[in-house]
Structure formats: structure tokens, C-alpha cells
Automatic annotation (TrEMBL):
Keywords on record: NADP, Oxidoreductase, Pantothenate biosynthesis
EC number in record: 1.1.1.169
Function: Catalyzes the NADPH-dependent reduction of ketopantoate into pantoic acid.
Domain of life: Bacteria
Protein name according to UniProt: 2-dehydropantoate 2-reductase
Length: 326
């Protein structure tokens, strides 16, 4: 089984570590950067020294090693559009795309560009951060929820040919997927993964923006119960208006559990703001905000946080442009 992983970031490195015995190929921006090291929960470290290929400069010969069965995509939401423009040569007819991101919309974007390929969408509660240059630390081993995108989206939006023409050998597909997923220590396969994605969207929709604008650890949200409650209330109203099936108390509890379980963590958005990087505001609050707008729903808390993060993102992207031209 041939696996490609796009990106050598935190989650890409975690997956390279999980799939190390399969010698994945890393599709990266720059092959000259050193191999990354990942440190596990028990402090053992592993050098992720696998074959690398520049994603923007596809192979011209010896193509066979680069016909992937699975291509795992673990870039940030705002990096996906540029990646898609570079990805075509790496996606063979039989290549399954597996996208694991926070926020929503990425899988839909992939489906629009690769309508004939089987696409799986996932979300993870694994937690990994850069502890030093080229080194990642696993800080929590979570769960990977994954499922076929063609069961989640409307067939008018995405119906890959092999499903439409019933040419998929489901036995083979199941056994390939099984071989992939058994490498993760805690994986849940869903026939319809949308519940898992909307649950994670609600978790990220509450924790990430609040911790980002307040610059606090996740656990410090305990000191802001009114802000947490107001945001939950609006997200639940958005889900209700959009006919997303959920149980209010259970979802509220799920959010509280993640706040507790990751209390010592700085959320990804909090760190993005701190280090003046772009955040995933558009695919988290932007997505929720669009869902609200589509139903003419008034969501002042979401809107206010979304606008604040938008301004921060705008200042961070102009600062990085200025640095690039220095
Ligand atoms: N880290 C975590 O603990 C968790 C992360 N997630 C989610 O997983 C996703 C990935 O996050 P994370 O791994 O933390 O992010 P990172 O920024 O650490 O990793 C993204 C990587 O992708 C690379 N990349 C971007 N565009 C391209 C491209 N066109 N070609 C090749 N490589 C590219 C980036 O390179 P460069 O840096 O040079 O731009 C970077 O190395 C996000 O949606 C995040 O919210 C979910 C749960 C937990
Ligand atoms: C689960 C949580 C909120 C952990 O911090 C996360 O996914 C993130 O930081 O993006």
C-alpha cells in the first residue's frame, strides 16, 4: 500500500509516525529542510526520515512509486486552495484523498476539484505541537473520526464515478481502508462522518476563538462561563436552523469535556494569534457565520468574534507579506 502525506507540520508528522512501517512519501514545499523528529507521550523520539518530493514540482519519470493508494492531506484550512492547484499530478485515478482538518469546507473544496476520486473526511482530537525547530511533541493521543465523503454530501454536489457506476469493489476498499486505519491507536469509522465533523466544529467554534482573543489556555475558559454559554447558544441555534441533528446537553457536555481534557493546552488559534500567523477563522467561525446568514439568523457573538479575528488575520498576512519582501 502506498501512502503520501502532504505537509510536514504537526498532524502530518504524527501521521508519518503512525505509518512509519509503510515508508510514506512526504509531499512538501521544500525538500531541503531537515527531517522532522517526533517525541511521543513516553518521551521516545523518532526521526521521520522518509522520501520527500516537492509538491509543486511533480516527478517526470520513475512515476510508479508515486501512485498513491491514499494521499493524506493535513494542511491548514487556508492553505488548501493553493495546495489543490499543485496536487493534480499526484492524484491518480485510484488515489483516495483523506483530508484531516479542523473547521469545515475543505472536504467540499476537494470534492469540487477531484470529483472522480474517493474522498474520506476526518477530524482528530490528537494534539501535537512544535516543541523546537523541526521537532514535534505529541501532547495528547486522541481519536481519529473518519468516513466517506460521498455519504455525507448531496449526490448533486459529489458522487464519484466509482460509486455512481457501482464499479467499486467494496470488499477491496474495506480491506485497504482497514490496513490504513489500523495504524491509528484509536480510530472510529463512520458511515456518515458529518456528526463527528459538526461536533468538532462546535468544540473548535467555542474554544478556539475565545482562547485566541483572550490569549488564555483552554482550561482558563472556566473563568468565562457567560462567554462560553453565549457562544454555545448561538452555535446550537445555527445547527437547529440548518437541520443538523444533535442533542443540546450532550453537545454542550462534549465541549466542556474537551475544555477540561485539554485544560493545559493553548489552542491552535490562540497560538496562531500569538505568533502572528493566519488562523483558521474562515473555516471555523466563517463557516458558522455563513450557515447563520443562509437562514437569516442573527448571531452577534459569532459575528463579533469573527470580525475581530478577521482583522487580526488581515494584519498578520500583511505583516508576513512585508517580511517576505524585506
Ligand atoms: N496540531 C494539532 O494538535 C491539531 C491540528 N488539527 C488540525 O489539523 C490541520 C493541520 O494542523 P497542523 O498540523 O497543526 O498545522 P501545521 O501548520 O503544523 O502543518 C501544516 C503543514 O502543511 C504544510 N503545507 C501547507 N501548504 C502546503 C503545500 N502546498 N505543500 C506542502 N506542504 C504544505 C505547512 O508548511 P509551512 O509551515 O511551510 O506553510 C505545514 O508544514 C489543521 O486544520 C488543524 O486545525 C486538529 C487537531 C489537532
Ligand atoms: C481540541 C482543541 C480545541 C485543542 O486545543 C483543538 O482542536 C485546537 O486547538 O485546534
Amino acid at each position: 500500500m502506498k501512502i503520501g502525506i502532504v505537509g510536514q507540520g504537526a498532524i502530518g508528522s504524527l501521521f508519518a509516525y503512525y505509518f512509519k512501517t509503510l515508508s510514506p512519501v512526504l509531499l512538501v514545499k521544500n525538500i531541503d529542510v531537515p527531517a522532522r523528529t517526533i517525541i511521543g507521550l513516553t518521551r521516545e523520539s523518532t526521526l521521520l526520515d522518509f522520501a520527500k518530493q516537492p509538491v509543486h514540482n511533480p516527478f517526470t519519470n520513475n512515476a510508479e512509486p508515486y501512485i498513491f493508494d491514499f494521499l493524506l492531506i493535513t494542511v491548514k484550512g487556508y492553505q488548501l486552495a493553493e495546495l489543490i492547484s499543485q496536487l493534480r499530478p499526484w492524484v491518480a485515478r485510484q488515489t483516495r484523498l483523506v483530508i484531516v482538518q479542523n473547521g469545515m469546507g475543505g472536504a467540499q473544496m476537494l470534492a469540487a476539484h477531484f470529483p472522480q476520486n474517493l474522498i474520506y473526511a476526518g477530524t482528530t482530537t490528537d494534539a501535537v505541537y512544535a516543541s523546537a525547530t523541526d521537532t514535534f511533541q505529541i501532547s495528547a493521543q486522541g481519536r481519529l473520526d473518519i468516513g466517506p465523503l460521498w455519504n455525507m454530501l448531496d449526490p448533486t454536489q459529489y458522487a464519484p464515478k466509482p460509486c455512481k457506476h457501482k464499479t467499486v469493489n467494496w470488499q477491496h476498499e474495506k480491506s485497504l481502508l482497514d490496513s490504513l486505519l489500523r495504524f491509528h491507536p484509536f480510530v472510529m469509522y463512520h458511515q456518515d462522518v458529518s456528526d463527528a465533523l459538526y461536533t468538532k466544529l462546535a468544540i473548535n467554534g467555542v474554544i478556539n476563538p475565545l482562547t485566541a482573543v483572550l490569549q488564555i489556555k483552554n482550561g482558563q475558559l472556566r473563568q468565562y462561563p457567560e462567554k462560553v454559554a453565549a457562544l454555545k447558544k448561538e452555535i446550537f441555534a445555527v445547527y437547529k436552523a440548518n437541520d443538523i441533528t444533535f442533542f443540546e446537553q450532550a453537545l454542550s457536555h462534549a465541549i466542556d469535556i474537551v475544555i477540561e481534557a485539554t485544560s493545559e493546552n493553548w489552542s491552535s488559534m490562540c497560538q496562531d494569534v500569538k505568533y502572528k500567523r493566519l488562523s483558521e477563522n474562515e473555516t471555523v467561525l466563517g463557516f458558522l457565520s455563513n450557515m447563520a446568514k443562509s437562514k437569516n439568523l442573527y448571531t452577534p457573538v459569532i459575528t463579533e468574534l469573527y470580525q475581530r479575528l478577521r482583522l487580526l488575520d488581515a494584519s498578520h498576512s500583511s505583516a508576513s507579506l512585508a517580511n517576505d519582501t524585506d
